[in-house]
């Protein structure tokens, strides 16, 4: 390994050891601590949403509805969807790894707006409180999509508190996105040009654009829902002159780009992992960078593919269908570039790499089945079946969660200063990959054969697939609980991590593990492109200099 | 933490910035990004309005004739004037003219309150004419449901706008108090940021006024 500058590492207390009181955590403006606050919150919600999914899977073990009442079943899948989408997946990588890494990777001392960053966490928690109140008050049965007129005129459940909760959480997501955008624009260290940015940053930047530009539309839509429901006036109600399709347009104008809020950060993580564990520079850096931006832009133009059977104009369906095909191109570019990076690389099979490779496999299946669904006639055939459920779980759970966990493992030594247990890490990665496929692949088949989604009972011929799926879900659950246990264990008992255990090139690896409060003892100067890995394990880090060193030399 | 550190030149800078220029640019870009969010927030309700406006063109025209164009026009003038005073306040702030700046900020505050006063009075008149959906809406003419839809949008759009005004006025009131103590003597970025926000709220009204009041012929 080539030497890193000792000047960047003057030992001062790490951000964890800077202070120990609860107040020092709850009032922190340190982006790293805020990232951990988010991590605690969304981990909680992940298991709440997972609990609901567990009951759903148990109910579907048999064709009859015998475990829960149909009303309860409706609430269970709604809770699962709402919590997983708005309180886990949307914030997952941007608020945790994004918060932790964006400033360090670009050589900044903090986010551009540290207090706004902390405020975003509190706003998120207030939104979460509303969601919990809605759950305790009886739950919601509209599905996570809140389709009108059911949600505004007929549902007797806690639609308003849940909508308010999502609205509030949306603002936290806007503030996180805004912070990342400004930080990337204005806080880069000397020498960190746009094309020296790690691809993680490019993807987080693209994600943030979507957060800032799509979330406000959802906010306004939820306001309109709340007004219609509270005052019984017709905005989307056809009986009062409203147009229910308008709701679907507004909702999907946010919610399709939201899919990219969930998957672009996963691509961000995987781009870092693949190149590091192949010991090769990333193949096609600029293609990957610009494909992130292209996904963000084209992602805004395809929402109508959720409405092919809604009765919208056939011509708009045709256009939405073709643009949906087009948006697959930048995603495919990424997959090809990752694959080309692997080619002739000296690959090592550490846990993060297993997660990253799993991501590529699941994302490919999820993405290709997305093309099935973008095809008008096929979509008409499989609309509202388990085929759709399987497709978006391959993207949102398979890909996004695998990337999140891969990223957590990769940066765990940086975050906690300790190594996770490698053997258990591999076990969890493989368990999750196998459990996931066993859970969701049978759903493709059941769905293609015609099993509709969102019913608590089903025709007996689908039982085999459902039993397989439920069996897979129990394996998946074990896979998800394992990291929770051993990562917490490793915070005290894990082997102490070195500053750069993977021999990685990014700035975050050139400072201490865990980093001091302001990330670097001195502002680093970026002297190299990212990902200069050599097959023999050596590499060129992105910085070997600091501003003060230069000043000293100039003075001398 | 917001401890400040001083650099060789210029006003003190928050710890995580290198110099004043970087901090200033970050703050300005931050406000622009926030306003982009706001454009999409209002954009959603404008799109919804115009979809119904084109579907129910005649009904919406008839409904629009029941709004008080005179009050809307007065408010437009009031708000445009407040945009002028806030722009001059920013200018005064850049030239370190504290007393002038405070005076112009107070003028902006008064104009903002005047706008809200007129708006509240107009709501009162709307109420007397039974035009408030869900509270006392009564419509003698044809198509009451679609007509009510117009007024639903009228109230949502103007109320969300008024909420932005109220937030702006509250922030401004606090800033006036700060400005009098000299908080912006060295660095008037905050006044500049407020100016951007206020102009934006103004521009929203510039779109609301023709959308709701003028499309009636
Ligand atoms: Cu979509």
Which labels suit this protein?
heterodimer, A: 556 residues, mainly alpha, Cytochrome C Oxidase, Chain A, two-stranded antiparallel ribbon, 17 helices, globular, disordered N terminus, B: 217 residues, Four Helix Bundle (Hemerythrin (Met), subunit A), two-stranded antiparallel sheet, 2 strands, 76% helix, 2% strand, elongated, binds copper (II) ion
Shape of chain B: elongated
Instruction: Name the poorly predicted regions of chain A.
Output: 1-6
How many DSSP H or I helices of chain B? Answer: 6
Main sheet specs of chain B: 2 strands, antiparallel
Question: Oligomeric state of the chains?
Answer: heterodimer
Tell me the name of the CATH class of chain B. Mainly Alpha
Strand content of chain A: under 5%
- Residue share in helix of chain A: 55-70%
Q: What is the strand tally of chain B? A: 2
Explain this structure to me?
The complex is a heterodimer of chains A (556) and B (217). With 556 residues, chain A is an all-alpha fold. Chain A has one domain (14-555): Cytochrome C Oxidase, Chain A (Up-down Bundle), CATH 1.20.210.10. Chain A has 17 helices and 4 strands. Chain A has helices at 22-26, 31-59, 70-89, 92-105, 114-136, 150-154, 159-186, 199-231, 244-278, 285-298, 314-342, 351-374, 376-382, 386-416, 422-448, 463-493, 547-555, and strands at 524-526, 532-533, 539-540, 543-546. A two-stranded antiparallel sheet of chain A has the order 1-4. In chain A, a hairpin with a 5-residue loop joins β2 and β3. The longest helix of chain A is centred in the middle third of the chain and has 35 residues, at 244-278. In chain A, 58% of the residues are buried. Mean pLDDT of chain A is 93; it is low at 1-6. By secondary structure, chain B is mainly α. Chain B has a single domain (13-216), classed as Four Helix Bundle (Hemerythrin (Met), subunit A), CATH 1.20.120. Chain B contains 6 helices and 2 strands. In chain B, a hairpin with a 7-residue loop joins β1 (4-5) and β2 (13-14). The interface between A and B is large, with 43 and 38 residues. The site of copper (II) ion has 4 residues of chain A, from α9.
């Amino acid at each position: 390994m080539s030497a890193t500058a000792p000047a960047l590492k003057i030992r001062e207390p790490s951000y964890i050891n800077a202070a120990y009181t609860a107040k020092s955590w709850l009032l922190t403006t340190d982006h790293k601590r805020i990232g951990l606050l988010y991590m605690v919150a969304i981990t909680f919600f992940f298991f709440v949403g997972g609990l609901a999914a567990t009951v759903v899977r148990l109910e579907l073990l048999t064709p009859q509805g015998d475990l829960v009442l149909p009303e309860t079943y409706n609430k269970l899948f709604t809770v699962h969807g709402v919590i997983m989408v708005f309180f886990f997946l949307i914030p997952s990588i941007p608020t945790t790894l994004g918060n932790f890494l964006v400033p360090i990777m670009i050589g900044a001392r903090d986010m551009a707006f540290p207090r706004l960053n902390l405020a975003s966490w509190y706003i998120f928690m207030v939104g979460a409180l509303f969601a919990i109140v809605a759950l305790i008050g009886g739950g919601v049965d509209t599905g996570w999509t809140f389709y009108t007129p059911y949600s505004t005129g007929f549902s007797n459940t806690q639609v308003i508190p849940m909508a308010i909760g999502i609205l509030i959480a949306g603002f936290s997501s806007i503030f996180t996105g805004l912070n990342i955008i400004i930080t990337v624009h204005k806080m880069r260290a000397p020498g960190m040009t746009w094309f020296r940015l790690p691809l993680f940053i490019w993807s987080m930047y693209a994600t943030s654009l979507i957060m800032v530009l799509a979330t406000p539309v959802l906010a306004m839509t939820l306001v309109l829902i709340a007004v219609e429901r509270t005052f019984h006036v017709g905005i989307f109600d056809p009986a009062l002159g409203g147009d229910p399709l308008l709701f679907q347009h507004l909702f999907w104008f946010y919610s399709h780009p939201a899919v990219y809020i969930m998957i672009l950060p996963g691509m961000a993580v995987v781009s870092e992992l693949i190149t590091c564990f192949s010991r090769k520079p990333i193949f096609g850096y600029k293609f990957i960078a610009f494909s992130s931006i292209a996904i963000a832009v084209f992602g805004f133009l395809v929402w109508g593919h959720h409405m092919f059977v809604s009765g919208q104009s056939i011509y708009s369906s045709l256009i939405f269908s073709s643009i949906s095909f087009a948006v697959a191109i930048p995603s495919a570019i990424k997959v090809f570039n990752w694959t080309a990076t692997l080619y002739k690389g000296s690959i090592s099979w550490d846990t993060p790499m297993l997660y990253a490779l799993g991501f590529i496999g699941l994302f490919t299946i999820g993405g290709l089945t997305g093309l099935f669904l973008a095809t008008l006639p096929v979509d008409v055939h499989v609309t509202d079946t388990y085929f759709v459920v399987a497709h978006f779980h391959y993207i949102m759970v398979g890909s996004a969660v695998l990337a999140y966990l891969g990223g957590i493992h990769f940066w765990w030594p940086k975050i906690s200063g300790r190594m996770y247990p490698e053997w258990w890490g591999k076990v969890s990665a493989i368990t999750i990959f196998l459990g996931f496929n066993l859970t969701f692949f049978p759903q493709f088949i059941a769905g293609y054969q015609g099993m509709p989604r969102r019913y608590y009972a089903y025709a007996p011929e689908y039982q085999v697939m459902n039993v397989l799926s439920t069996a897979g879900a129990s394996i998946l659950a074990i896979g998800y609980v394992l990291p929770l246990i051993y990562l917490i264990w490793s915070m005290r008992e894990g082997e102490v991590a070195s500053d750069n255990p993977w021999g990685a090139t990014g700035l975050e690896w050139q400072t201490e593990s865990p980093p001091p409060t302001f990330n670097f003892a001195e502002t680093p100067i970026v002297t190299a492109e990212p990902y200069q890995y050599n097959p023999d394990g050596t590499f060129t880090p992105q910085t070997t200099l600091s501003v003060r060193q230069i000043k000293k030399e100039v003075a001398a | 933490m917001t401890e400040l550190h001083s650099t060789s030149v210029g006003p003190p800078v928050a710890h995580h910035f290198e110099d004043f220029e970087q901090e200033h640019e970050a703050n300005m870009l931050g406000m622009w990004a926030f306003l982009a969010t706001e454009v999409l927030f209002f954009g959603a309700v404008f799109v919804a309005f115009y979809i119904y406006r084109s579907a129910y063109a005649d009904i919406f025209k008839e409904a629009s004739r029941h709004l008080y164009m005179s009050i809307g026009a007065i408010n437009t003038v009031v708000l445009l004037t407040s945009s002028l005073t806030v722009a001059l306040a920013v200018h005064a702030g850049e030239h370190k003219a504290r007393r002038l700046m405070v005076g112009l900020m107070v003028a902006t505050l008064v104009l903002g309150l005047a706008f809200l006063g007129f708006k509240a009075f107009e709501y009162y008149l709307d109420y007397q004419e039974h035009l408030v959906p869900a509270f006392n809406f009564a419509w003698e003419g044809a198509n009451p449901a679609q007509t009510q839809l117009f007024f639903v949008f009228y109230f949502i759009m103007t109320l969300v706008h008024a909420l932005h005004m109220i937030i702006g006025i509250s922030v401004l009131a606090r800033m006036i108090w700060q400005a009098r103590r000299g908080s912006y003597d060295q660095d008037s970025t905050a006044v500049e940021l407020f100016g951007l926000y206020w102009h934006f709220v103004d521009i929203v009204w510039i779109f609301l006024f023709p959308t709701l009041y003028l499309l009636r012929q």
